[in-house]
Amino acid sequence: MKTKKLLALLLAGAMSASLLAGCGGNTDTAATDDTADTTEQSTETESDLAYVQDKGTLVVGITDFAPMDYRDDNGEWIGFDADMAKAFAEEIGVEAEFIEINWDNKIMELDTKAIDAVWNGMTLTDEVTTTMNCSDPYCVNAQVLVVPSDVADQYQDAASLTDLNIAVESGSAGQAAAEELGLNFTAVQSQANALMEVASGASDACVIDLLMAGAMIGEGTSYPDLTYTVNLNEASGADSEYYGVGFRQDSDLTEAFNEFYAAAYADGTVEELATTYGVQESIVAPAE
């Protein structure tokens, strides 16, 4: 009897060990399969270009900023940047969709995938280049002081600006330039709002991009009684500014844009759009 009981116990133990080994084998296989699935999913999501192509739209974050991004009489977004964005979207097989953003929130909008690109005459500041994957420069720019034409002769250098109440776009290179020179400023939502502040008399002056000033103020424009005087970059000893397109960190859309821009520059598309929107003197040749 004892022998039979011992044999039964040994058989039971062997069966249990076999079952445990079988379960352990299945667990290892499942873990391996899960790891493979995760790796495959990670690989699939690494490409920002593929992500954009899969959803069929390139969502571009902008503000109302002529001549780069603004609405025509039909409410459609046009401008040098807007038209370039449409051409780039077409090149990668998707449609461009434009969303007005709060400029202060541009990095958050990009990181949360509310937008896929910041493409709005964006100056390549240290903040921008360390938080986004930026394209090569495509335009050169500066920050200028805009005042009513009838008082322009009073504001021809940095020392003359100390008593002015100046409107700037919140979070912009214009605000940074005003801070650098210790000027008295009020932050508003956009450069378009800054211009309206001066036109209405709510502010004495504003600081905006040179490209915008060239298109928006002076004879034959929306603000014929305004002009620009001091170049704040020169006044502070700062280098010229450059525009770039901002994509998410490590995005392969950046390389795709750089290649697109080089080809568009070579075939005359960039020059044609620059002439249309009056920014030909600001265009930067693609990096070699």
Description:
With 288 residues, this protein is of the alpha/beta class. It has helices at residues 2-46, 48-55, 80-91, 106-111, 126-131, 173-180, 191-200, 210-216, 232-236, 253-266, 269-277, and strands spanning 57-62, 70-71, 77-78, 95-100, 117-123, 133-134, 139-141, 143-148, 166-169, 185-188, 205-209, 226-231, 241-247. The strands form 3 sheets. Strands 1, 4, 5, 6, 7 and 13 form a 6-stranded mixed beta sheet that branches. Helix 6 (173-180) links the parallel strand 9 (166-169) and strand 10 (185-188). The longest helix is centred in the N-terminal third of the chain and has 45 residues, at 2-46. It starts with a helix and ends in an 11-residue tail after the last helix.
Uncertain segments: 1-32, 38-44
| Overall form | globular
The number of distinct helices, counting runs of at least 4 residues, comes to 11
- On the 0 to 100 scale, the average pLDDT is 88
> Class by helix and strand content?
alpha/beta
Q: What is the CA-CA span between the terminal residues?
A: 91 Å
What are the secondary-structure elements, in order, as H or E? HHEEEHEHEHEEEEHEHEHEHEHH
Tally of DSSP β-strands: 13
Instruction: Give the amount of beta strand, in percent.
Output: 15-25%
What portion of residues is helical? 40-55%
| Major sheet summary line | 6 strands, mixed
* Rg from Cα: 29 Å
